[in-house]
């Protein structure tokens, strides 16, 4: 293992740092193609994708959060309804099928039993437009799907998923832009600008990775805690969920994520001087709203740990710790903001001395119910 690990202590750390490469490889087909297009998803994909009336995403764990993020893109950019459901819930409920919906399964391993069964169930209800986003070629879920987009993260060994998640996001963004184009909602200028966003993403991810020393400095403040809250809004809410999941998986700190606007409907009761609150607060249209949510936390003595970007212009003050990524990367911002929450979980787990790559009670691939 030491050979494979190179300069890294854990596979998770190595996999976090591989993300510029993993994302670069995953977008290669799109960049080489010079355009978004159905051909990126397999043979006869245009026929499957052309007349869809909506998207239903099914997945588990981290892959489910990738789906939740994509929902914001699909409705905003492609302009069709998108719903996202935990596979183990969907498979056991009397779902109303619409065969004009595209069923999208997301799975790193391609072998997760619940996701596979949810796909089979969708097919039994009459769905035949099926697409899978998967990291393992020729695994069960892509084999059972009409279309596939393979992420090229490479083997992921750490149980806590990192590079699989961010590459799923670029695959889902590519799918969104392709559907938008087929529906006449993406003109040449818009397409060129989204392609450019993708091209620049590996560089932006590298900038985010360079924040590691600052994030590590925060980890001592989290290590003695038993609870943490994560807040985000809009497309960054699922990133807050993913940040909380990473922290609980590997450090065993109880962490919960909330959409920041929901704070007043319950979780605010938990906030006191002991409660660290991580906020994903990029400079987007919701920033002012997030700032007032942060004040609600401060007013109760909560300690804020804010991930933002250069453009957002707010500084540190008592009880408000800030780490700034270099620039706001627009529509792909949730991908960039994933990096700091991954690094935070990693360094907190290191400080607590847990088994980072093999957290207790969890498995990399869950092929049983
Ligand atoms: C397990 C893993 C998670 C993963 C989930 C879904 O719980 O520990 O990291 O997100 O399964 O796995 P999949 O391979 O379907 O993405």
Number of helices: 15
Helical content stands at: 40-55%
Helices and strands, in order, run as HHHHEHEHEHEHEHHHEHEEHEEHH
Strand order of the largest sheet: 2-1-3-4-5
Bound chemical compounds: 6-O-phosphono-alpha-D-glucopyranose
Shape: globular
In terms of quaternary structure, the protein is single chain
Mean pLDDT: 96
- Secondary structural class: alpha/beta
Report how far the terminal alpha carbons are from each other.
30 Å
List low-confidence stretches.
Answer: none
By DSSP, the count of extended strands is: 10
What share of the residues does DSSP label as strand, in percent? Answer: 15-25%
Kindly provide the radius of gyration, computed on alpha-carbon positions and rounded to a whole number of angstroms: 20 Å
The largest sheet, given as strand count, sense and whether it forms a barrel, is: 5 strands, parallel
Subcellular location: Cytoplasm
Function: Catalyzes the first step in hexosamine metabolism, converting fructose-6P into glucosamine-6P using glutamine as a nitrogen source.
Active site: 364 (for fru-6p isomerization activity)
Keywords: Aminotransferase, Cytoplasm, Glutamine amidotransferase, Repeat, Transferase
Description:
This protein has 369 residues and is α/β, with parallel strands linked by helices. The protein is 46% helix and 15% strand. The chain is built from 15 helices and ten strands. The chain has helices spanning 2-5, 11-17, 19-33, 45-50, 61-78, 87-90, 113-124, 140-143, 163-182, 188-209, 212-222, 237-251, 287-299, 333-336, 338-352; strands spanning 54-59, 82-86, 101-107, 130-134, 147-150, 227-232, 254-259, 276-280, 303-309, 320-325. It has a five-stranded parallel sheet, with helices on both faces. A five-stranded parallel sheet has the order 7-6-8-9-10, sandwiched between helices. The protein is globular and about 55 Å long. The protein binds 6-O-phosphono-alpha-D-glucopyranose. 6-O-phosphono-alpha-D-glucopyranose binds next to helix 5.
């Amino acid at each position: 293992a030491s050979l494979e690990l190179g300069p890294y202590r854990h596979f998770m750390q190595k996999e976090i740092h591989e993300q510029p490469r993993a994302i670069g490889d995953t977008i290669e087909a799109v960049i080489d193609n010079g355009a978004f297009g159905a051909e990126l998803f397999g043979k006869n994909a245009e026929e499957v994708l052309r007349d869809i009336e909506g998207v239903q995403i099914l997945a588990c764990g981290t892959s489910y959060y990738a789906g939740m993020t994509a929902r914001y893109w699909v409705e905003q950019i492609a302009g069709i309804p998108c719903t996202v459901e935990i596979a183990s819930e969907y498979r056991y409920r009397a779902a109303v099928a619409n065969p004009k919906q595209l069923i999208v399964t997301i799975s790193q391993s391609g072998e997760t039993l619940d996701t596979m069964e949810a796909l089979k169930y969708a097919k039994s209800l009459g769905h035949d437009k099926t697409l899978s986003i998967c990291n393992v070629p020729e695994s069960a879920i892509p084999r059972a799907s009409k279309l596939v987009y393979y992420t090229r993260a490479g083997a992921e060994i750490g149980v806590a998923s990192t590079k699989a998640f961010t590459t799923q996001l670029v695959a889902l963004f590519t799918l969104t832009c392709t559907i938008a184009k087929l529906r006449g909602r993406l003109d040449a200028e818009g397409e060129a600008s989204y392609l450019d966003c993708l091209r620049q993403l590996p560089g932006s991810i590298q900038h985010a990775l360079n924040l590691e020393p600052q994030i590590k400095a925060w980890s001592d403040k989290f290590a003695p805690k038993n609870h943490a809250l994560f807040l985000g809004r809009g497309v960054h809410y699922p990133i807050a969920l993913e940040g909380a999941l990473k922290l609980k998986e590997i450090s065993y700190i109880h962490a919960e994520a909330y959409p920041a606007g929901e704070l007043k409907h319950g979780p605010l009761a938990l906030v006191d001087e002991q409660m660290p609150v991580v906020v994903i607060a990029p400079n987007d249209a919701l920033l002012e709203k997030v700032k007032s949510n942060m004040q609600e936390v401060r007013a109760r003595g909560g300690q804020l740990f804010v991930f933002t970007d250069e453009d957002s212009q707010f500084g540190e003050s008592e009880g408000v710790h800030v780490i700034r990524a270099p620039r706001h990367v627009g529509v792909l911002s949730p991908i960039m903001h994933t990096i700091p929450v991954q690094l935070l979980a990693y360094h907190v787990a290191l400080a607590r001395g847990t088994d980072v790559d093999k957290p207790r009670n969890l498995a990399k691939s869950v092929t049983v119910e």
